[in-house]
UniProtKB/TrEMBL annotation:
GO terms for cellular component: cytoplasm; nucleus. This is Putative nuclease HARBI1. It holds the Pfam family DDE_Tnp_4. It is found in: Cytoplasm; Nucleus. Belongs to the HARBI1 family. Signal peptide: none annotated. The keyword Nucleus applies. Its main location: cytoplasm. Keywords: Cytoplasm, Hydrolase, Metal-binding, Nuclease, Nucleus. It comes from Mytilus coruscus. Its cofactor is a divalent metal cation. Residues 135-186 form the DDE Tnp4 domain. Transposase-derived protein that may have nuclease activity. Does not have transposase activity. GO terms for molecular function: hydrolase activity; metal ion binding; nuclease activity.
Length: 186
């Protein structure tokens, strides 16, 4: 027997949360979420003429919540007031759209640089062969902010931000990301 369609009210998290809450839940601020949605707009636009299609920005938010939390599909689907099968299709389509554009944003060193980096890293730490770059994250202690102070208290009980760093074989910083409040999962 076929189930009747249920159209649920969907609240947009961009209307509910400030940037700190968005970063805590989705790992990106409002501006970045909107940029991602804009980038993927063509791929995520529904071909249906129905009024209840999920807009591209909501599809991006659904997928980002899954990536950020690693939670069960049903839990995130319930959070967004959608069916689990809709969640699965949505996350799959967003993931595929991101993969199609990955070459524009993810750059790996060229052939000769790869060889040089492997040799340099092996000279420093010969128990780690074939290393190109190193990545790590740490909590950096900060003075308690005046707003949203509780979000910056980490699991060890002090105020911090989480900093992620990538370095090359010459100990040069290739990338630094310092935007997550200390209570975020590291």
């Amino acid at each position: 027997m076929r189930r009747e369609h249920v159209f649920r009210d969907r609240t947009n998290p961009l209307d509910l949360y400030d940037d700190l809450e968005l970063v805590k839940r989705f790992r990106f601020d409002r501006q970045t979420i909107l940029q991602i949605a804009d980038l993927l707009q063509e791929d995520l636009e529904s071909s249906t003429l129905r009024n209840h299609a999920i807009p591209p920005v909501m599809k991006v938010l659904i997928a980002l919540r899954f990536y950020a939390s690693g939670s069960f599909q049903n839990i995130i689907a319930d959070t967004f007031n959608i069916d689990q099968s809709t969640f699965s299709r949505t996350t799959h389509s967003v993931s595929n759209a991101l993969v199609r554009r990955a070459h524009k944003f993810i750059k790996f060193p060229s052939g000769h640089v790869i060889k040089e980096n492997k040799v340099k890293f092996y000279a420093v730490a010969n128990f780690f062969p074939n290393v190109l770059e190193l990545i790590d994250g740490t909590h950096v202690r900060i003075i308690a902010p005046l707003q949203h102070e509780e979000q910056f208290v980490n699991r060890k009980g002090y105020h911090s931000i989480i900093v992620q760093v990538i370095v090359n074989a010459d100990s040069q910083f290739i990338n630094i990301v310092a935007k997550w409040p200390g209570s975020s999962h590291d």
